[in-house]
Amino acid sequence: MIIDNHPFEVNDKGHLVIGGADAVELAQKYGTPLYVYDVNIIRNNCKAFIETFDKMEVTAKVAYASKAFSSIAMLQIMKQENMCLDVVSEGELYTALQAEFPTEKIHLHGNNKSLNELRMAIENDIGCIVVDNFREIELIGRLLKEYNKQMDVLMRVTPGIESKTHQYIMTGNEDSKFGFNLNNGQAEEAFKLLWNHEFIKFKGLHCHIGSQIFETDRFLIATEVLFQELKNWKNTYGFIPEVLNLGGGYGIRYTSEESPISYDIYVKELVTEVKKHVQMLAIPMPEIWLEPGRAIAGNAGLTLYTVGAIKHIPGIRNYVSVDGGMTDNLRPALYQAKYEAVIANKASAPPISEVSIAGKCCESGDMLIWDLPLPKVDHGDILAVFSTGAYGYSMANHYNRFAKPAVVFVEDSQDKLVVKRESYQDIISHDLSYE
Ligand SMILES: *Cc1c(COP(=O)(O)O)cnc(C)c1O
């Protein structure tokens, strides 16, 4: 049996199966809460992007946005799948270096890159810095001169599409902390600083219009806006872009209400749109770069919890509390994100009623799922929440001094611990005495 809308199966014991492994046995072996990933799904998500570009014979770079889930093992898989990597901090860059990720395939992002971050990027000869503001142009220029190195640079721009010309409400809006504004001339001003720079090799534009997007239209409109600017720069300055980075944000299925587009369709439509503009401008095809995060890791992961207290309020609601919550999955508390779940040890039993899944933290807002249809729930049941592979572990925190859960990878029925569960000792490891 296959679980509706999620890429997992049920075995003849009625247990949920992930990557060929029995989820209930994984919970017994490693304890809960536990993040579990099906590595084949991660690999297939990478291939869906890369192979489509290959088939279309377009030179491309697909960079995994490592903020979605960064760990040594995850980045080793990205390396094996020929992905590039986006990092936004020294911590993410350090993790990539520890995973021996090829540095020329690492790209640095961020709206407030510090001198130390830039220094670390330049010292390690990463592939590209995506410059976000005027201060960075100055810092990068200064550092490159100091190191006497050259560096590829893209400029992040905010397309700032007006809703009166298009019915779409874009997140790449003018009022954004990210990137250079195209409409008020700041992008062009930045261009003049970057173009023909002694140390900066300016390659082209980057834009990331938002996250969990389900239509290709928005990406196509953003592409069109970028090309309007590129046309101007070509005519005025003779600039020919070598790279066009269209960011990430490809939507995934959290609940049955979402119907994501398959990744090859995004790639095909984007390539077609870029080709159209390239022909109109009569320039060579630039490299196309994409930066999926959620689309790579999200649906490959799930979280296992053990059910504890069950509170029945007659006529109002049934609260089912689990042994994790906003400390391992912040998204419901942060932005009312919705999830679906099954009881892993009763995965083929039909639902009989709706319950609400509560976390353990001392906050009423620590609710993982409201009104979830489930079979009869008992203490000790294992709850499996789907699509927690992105922005789950990476947003995990120590509120209430809960230890961060372990992460297990499963591939072809073989399970492997890839992040250890934190201990109590880990939790106080930075505390110093005041006695
Ligand atoms: C967050 C982010 C991404 C990845 O977004 P997803 O929704 O996870 O695909 C890509 N590029 C940039 C610049 C980002 O900030």
UniProtKB/TrEMBL annotation:
Stated EC number for the protein is 4.1.1.20
The highest taxon in the source lineage is Bacteria
Q: Which UniProt keywords apply?
A: Amino-acid biosynthesis, Decarboxylase, Lyase, Lysine biosynthesis, Pyridoxal phosphate
One Gene Ontology MF term: pyridoxal phosphate binding
Domain called Orn/DAP/Arg decarboxylase 2 N-terminal: residue spans: 42-297
Which ranges carry the Orn/DAP/Arg decarboxylase 2 C-terminal domain?
Answer: 34-389
Q: Which InterPro entries match?
A: Ala_racemase/Decarboxylase_C (IPR009006), DAP_deCOOHase_LysA (IPR002986), De-COase2_C (IPR022643), De-COase2_CS (IPR022657), De-COase2_N (IPR022644), Orn/DAP/Arg_de-COase (IPR000183), PLP-binding_barrel (IPR029066)
> Where do the annotations place pyridoxal 5'-phosphate binding?
249, 291-294, 391
**Annotated pathway:** Amino-acid biosynthesis; L-lysine biosynthesis via DAP pathway; L-lysine from DL-2,6-diaminopimelate: step 1/1
Give the N6-(pyridoxal phosphate)lysine positions (modified residues).
67
Alphabetical list of PANTHER family matching this protein: DIAMINOPIMELATE DECARBOXYLASE, GROUP IV DECARBOXYLASE
Q: Which NCBIfam families does this chain map to?
A: lysA
What biological function has been recorded for the protein in this entry? Specifically catalyzes the decarboxylation of meso-diaminopimelate (meso-DAP) to L-lysine.
- Similarity remark: Belongs to the Orn/Lys/Arg decarboxylase class-II family. LysA subfamily.
Protein name per its UniProtKB record: Diaminopimelate decarboxylase
| Organism name | Virgibacillus salarius
Please name the taxonomic classification of the source. Bacteria, Bacillati, Bacillota, Bacilli, Bacillales
